[in-house]
Amino acid sequence: MPDYPDFTSQINIVAQALEHLTIRQKYGAASRDHDATICYKDSWQTLLDLTGKGFFYAGLLKCIDPDVYFSDQIRITIDGEEIANVTWEDIYGFKLFQPNLFPIWLVAYNVSTPLICASVTQGYTFESSYLLEYYHKSTSSCIIIWDMVYANIL
User: Fold this and answer.
1) Would you say residue 115 lies in a domain?
2) Domain hosting residue 149, numbered range
3) The predicted structure's pLDDT at residue 126
4) Is residue 75 part of a domain?
5) pLDDT tens digits, the chain, 154 residues: what are they?
6) Residue 10 forms part of a structural domain
7) How far apart are the C-alpha atoms of 153 and 8, rounded to whole Å?
8) Residue 99 to residue 154: CA distance in whole angstroms
9) Residue 57 falls in which region: left (phi positive, over 0), alpha (psi -120 to 50) or beta
10) Contact yes or no for 33/116 (Cβ under 8 A)
C-alpha cells in the first residue's frame, strides 16, 4: 500500500472482492454422540473415535460400577498423541474438580454409591483424529455412559 511501511497494513473490506469472511473455525455443525456400553475386566473399550478435523465442545463420562474400581483408566488421544491417560483416583488425587486446562475433570465422586462422573474439557481441536477410550480393571463388568458434543468435518 502506498504511504505505509512494509510492516503496516490496513484492510479495506469494501474494496476487496472476498468470497466470504471467516470469523470462526469452520468445523461444520455440532454433533452429539451418546451411548452406553458394558466394559469387561482388563479390556480397553473405545467410546468415541473421530477422524478428520474438528473441535470438541463438551463431554460427560459416567461409570456405574457396583465395585467402584478407582484404578480404571480414561485415555484421550488427539492426532495420534496421547494427551491424557489417568485413573479415577488420579483425577481425584490431583483435585481436578472444575473446568481447567487438563482434558478431564471430576463432576461426581461418591464412594458410598456406585457412580463416578467426569467431564471432558471443551475447546480441544484436532486435525486428524480424536479417540476416547476406557479401561476397566475390576473383577466385574461396569456400565459406561457417555455424552459428547463436537463439530467434525472429514
Assistant:
1) yes
2) 30-153
3) 93
4) yes
5) 455 555 555 666 665 666 665 555 678 888 999 999 998 888 899 999 999 999 999 999 998 876 666 888 999 999 999 999 999 889 988 888 888 888 999 988 776 777 788 999 888 999 999 999 999 887 778 889 999 999 998 7
6) no
7) 35
8) 28
9) alpha
10) no
Q: For strand 53-64 and strand 30-39, is the pairing parallel, antiparallel, or unpaired? A: unpaired
Q: Which amino acid is at 8?
A: T
Rounded distance, CA 5 to CA 53, Å? 37
CATH number for position 62:
2.60.120.380
The number of folded domains in the chain is: 1
Q: Are 137 and 72 in contact (CB under 8 A)?
A: yes
Long-range contacts, 115-118 (Cβ 8 Å, 24+): 115/62, 115/63, 115/64, 115/68, 116/62, 116/63, 116/65, 116/68, 116/70, 116/88, 117/60, 117/61, 117/62, 117/63, 118/60, 118/61, 118/62, 118/74, 118/88, 118/91
Matching residue, cell 479495506: 12
